[in-house]
Write a structure and sequence with these properties.
InterPro entries: AB_hydrolase_fold, Hydrolase_4. With about 270 residues, this protein is of the alpha/beta class. Helix content is about 40%, strand content about 20%. The protein is built from eleven helices and ten strands.
């Protein structure tokens, strides 16, 4: 191979790499956020006793959410549920039903772009969305902060952890949390400079270390999406109680509404 040909090959290779990295920069959020954007039915048709509520974000979006109270009694506490990066609130109905049966009120939040909501998800956008949910509970429904528990599932763990820095709850439940988004992205794209490319950071481990809130971390022992070691790092940084479900993968039903998970939430309810 002549020197001229070699130079041309190297130039082409560099151009290809630059184009690939530019595409990843531009379209990365389509890889991170996997919403089910379809409109949802009325809350009461899928979750008996639930109501449809609207949340107004600081940047002017109106988001749909579902709110349910326990039947026939005042709730012992209210749980703000922030889901993971996929699906929508309909997939969290079994969890809400179990928590309501346990005497808790529940708000199932859908982020912008999820469940028929307007907008496109981003780290900054989800922070505004969860604050709209917090305002609804504390201002519209008059829930005292001392009776509010945050529940974050996977990516939602980052969302509620960041909220807790500004508005500390009575308790914080983190299910399958990652150390930060770059750390979990590197598991899937080990040959890419993900820390340089990522626009959204979600630094869970760094943020939980600054909290002084009763915290429980629930982790599946065979999680194939978020390495269990990262969830254990988060638990250590938060000085949290760790509940590990042996053999459970990231999306197994036991990590959606299993007894260990429900029990972990109940353990955070103020006496």
């Amino acid at each position: 191979m002549t020197r001229t040909v070699l130079v041309r090959v190297l130039v082409v290779a560099v151009v290809v790499v630059v184009l690939v990295l530019a595409a990843l920069w531009a379209f990365q959020r389509r890889l991170i956020y996997l919403p089910d954007a379809r409109p949802l039915p009325a809350a009461a048709s899928v979750l008996p006793g639930a109501e449809d509520v609207r949340l107004r974000t600081a940047d002017g979006l109106e988001l749909g959410a579902w709110y349910v109270r326990p039947s026939g009694r005042d709730p012992a506490a209210t749980v703000l549920v922030a889901g993971g990066n996929g699906g929508n609130r309909a997939g969290r109905v079994p969890l809400a039903a179990k928590l309501a049966q346990a005497g808790l009120a529940v708000l199932l939040l859908d982020y912008r772009g999820y469940g028929g909501n307007p907008g496109d998800p981003s780290e900054a956008g989800l922070a505004l969305d969860v604050r709209a949910a917090h305002r609804f509970l504390t201002e519209d429904r008059r829930v005292p902060p001392g009776r509010l528990v945050y529940f974050g599932e996977s990516l939602g763990s980052a969302v509620v952890t960041e909220l807790a820095l500004e508005h500390p709850p009575a308790g914080l439940l983190l299910r399958s949390p990652f150390a930060d988004l770059a750390a979990v992205a590197a598991e899937f794209y080990p040959y890419l400079p993900v820390r340089l490319l990522l626009r959204d950071r979600f630094p869970v481990k760094e943020q939980v270390a600054r909290l002084r809130v009763p915290t429980v971390v629930v982790v599946g022992g065979r999680d194939s999406i978020v390495p269990p070691s990262q969830s254990r790092e988060v638990a250590a940084a938060a000085a949290a109680r760790l509940v590990e479900v042996p053999g459970a993968d990231h999306n197994d039903p036991v990590l959606l509404d299993g007894p260990e998970l429900v029990g972990a939430v109940r353990s955070l309810v103020p006496r």
